[in-house]
User: Fold Telomerase-binding protein EST1A from Colletotrichum fructicola.
Amino acid sequence: MTLKSHVSMTAISGLPVSGLEGKKDKLDGLNAADESSSQTPPQTGVTKPGPDQTTSLGASKCATKSCKCTEELCKQTRESASKASRGNAKRGNEESPLPPKRSGALAPTQTGNASTSDRKATQKRETLWSPEEEPLSPKGNTESPRSSTSRSFEPRNPEVDQTEVLIKQLETRLISQEQLVAEGKGIYAGLVMVESKCIEVDNAQGSTTESSPKLNNEQWQALIALHRTLLHEHHDFFLASQHPSASPALRRLASKYAMPARLWRHGIHSFLELLRHRLPASLEHMLTFIYLAYSMVALLYETVPTFEDTWIECLGDLGRYRMAIEDDDLKDREVWTSVSRHWYSKASDKAPTTGRLYHHLAILARPNALQQLFYYSKSLCVPIPFLSARESIMTLFEPHLNGSPTRLQEIDAAFVRAHAILFSGRNQEQLAPSVDEFIGSLDNHIGRTTRRWMESGYHIGVALGCSLLEYGSESNVIMRTIKSGARADEPNTAMQGVETAAPSQKFLDALDFACRTHDVVFRRFGDPSVTPYLHVTLSFLHHLVKFPAAMAHIESKIPWKLISLMLNTLIGTCTRFDKIENEAFPRNEKESPRPLPDDFAQRGLLWVEKYYPADWFTAAKIDDEEKYFEVASMMEERQNRCLWLGNRIAATGKWLTYDKNLRQFSVAPRYAIEIANLPTASDTGSDPPMQPDGRGARNGADVEMPDA
Assistant:
């Protein structure tokens, strides 16, 4: 490699781009001097700087001092490079406060370990690099260049760490009552104007016929924007009226003018119905608006807790709309069904006596017909019944009344068909065959399903209890007695206003259906699968004990003897006689109450009034998924509950009796009848039940006396 090429490349690699342009003349002169010196033979004493030597701004060190030409050339090179560096630094300081940086387009300095081909390529370059040429890349250079400056790490000043900078709280001004009232009036005026426009548009579009021109995307988007504006106006009004500084009068405005109901009716529901009637053309717009409304109501649920119950039900309704229009993706449909069920369950926990919520849960229970029947019946037999459920329940009953094929098991189809006939009064000739089919298959069905029948047991028990009330009919003899308030435990109200009326044929058919079911289930002594059914039945009877006029209509048909035998079977495993013989509701005072699944199923019904303690469902927070989850410890608690209910019924001595010394149940003399075909121990796989005269599993055994 010649000295000329070495000096040129090292000078270029050490200079910034701006310095090269200013020193072009001097470098041209330097190149001319190099050409004149290149005609002489190369000096053997000149060596190329190695990687361990530092080159300052491209200045080359000469190893041989005998060559004057070489020394002069090196001197000129150092002077030119030094002047160029000083001029460039001065210009860079004037233009920018930052130090000059090496341009990425310049070729790096070649080191001593470069390959021969790279050196030949370097020798051919005698001028500056231009953008048209390819950049040089050091292929053989694998060593990283050493930094010319060393880093210094100085310890931090301890005074800085000890210094704390306090930031003052921002000044805020409290809003006055006058300002809040003025703000609320302004928002309400705009809200009414937008609401009127929404009502006008929805009514106009709802009255159009199928032959009317369809709305295009721009028109749908304009309608969505209009209703979105109304939702935002409602949100602003709620924030103003429910402000922490608002007066009680201002807070009452939202309830006085029914703002939550107006938001749902005019801001959401009417437009959703308009979109639903225009399906499938409006599907995408309906999805957009559902998501918009859901997010807005969820925001109100978090920021305006005063109307939390309303927001929860609105979220459930929106989830049900979203579920109903999902036909393509079954997974999404199931997800939105779960979302809607969650909100409705949450709402029913806050308002357990409102039948409307159970009606909504019945719709979400499809295709489980037994669960649908349970929820529909419950929605009609609560203190606040949902009368529209009488129409909705027919969607469940119609296929069974018309003889259409269903996907249900035969025993479930027979049970639902019997209730359809009892409810509608149609196809009376099919009632007896349907009941016979159900009763004939019930015992074997319970034996096959075992523990899985526990959930079906309390669903069937609740449905039979509702059928005895004729599904909430005001003309029902039991319903009239209960609503009259003629309770035996309240002498001032006993038998007041009770009109003696003959029971209807529907009631007698329902009573026969229920008692025949009791006769099958209560023969399964020692079977834990039937205890939820027993619990629901005893809860119903325990409530009617307080209404002698109502009990008079059913007492002769109830299988009291079988109930006493079933209770004697359960008492054989009882360890807490102090709880079952006490008048107080049996509960563990040391732990938070854990309601049974059948407790949640009965909650809100007419016959559990004053049955549960006030804090039984509110003391512990239980997730929706865990409400109907059966755990092993619940079996003993349910048995104790059944024994306690039996004791409360036996306290009157009219139907059941209880001997505290023998600790066994019996019946009043008028119900002491012989029961044929009682199962043996081998049939049930458990000990035989205690007989009223003391015979049975405990015959000849010592009797455990209660503590004094």
Observations:
- The mean pLDDT is 77.
- DSSP finds 31 helices and two strands in the chain.
- The two ends are 118 Å apart (CA to CA).
- The first strand starts at residue 656 and ends at 659.
